[in-house]
Backbone:
């Protein structure tokens, strides 16, 4: 069972930057695809970006060019670098470990709040 703990959220002004971290423990980390999702008040949770075990990345269209997902397998950590932040990026950001088979469950962190406001 993988435990995920996010950190790095906070209050930032429009145009600013934040770096989120998600530390994993409890299982082999490097073999799993990892992702970041976000959920704004009154909205459904949406995919922000994901990174495969081979470090291939994919982004939601509205985040392309502004957000960068990366991973450090030695540190068992996945990162989300967020630049040029906008008020509409305000949300709780969640880290996710993707299950590799039907015999596994996805794992989620508890979330970290990001607020973009002047």
Residues:
């Amino acid at each position: 069972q993988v435990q995920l703990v996010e950190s790095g959220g906070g209050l930032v002004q429009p145009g600013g930057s934040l770096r989120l971290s998600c530390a994993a423990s409890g299982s082999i980390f490097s073999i799993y695809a990892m992702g970041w999702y976000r959920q704004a008040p009154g909205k459904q949770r949406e995919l922000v970006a994901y990174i495969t075990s081979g470090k291939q990345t994919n982004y939601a269209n509205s985040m392309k060019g502004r957000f960068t997902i990366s991973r450090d397998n030695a540190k068992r950590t996945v990162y989300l670098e967020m630049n040029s932040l906008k008020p509409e990026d305000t949300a709780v950001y969640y880290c996710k470990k993707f299950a590799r088979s039907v015999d596994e469950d996805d794992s989620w962190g508890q979330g970290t709040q990001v607020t973009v406001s002047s």
Remarks:
- The chain has a mean pLDDT of 95.
- DSSP finds no helices and eleven strands in the chain.
- The radius of gyration is 14 Å.
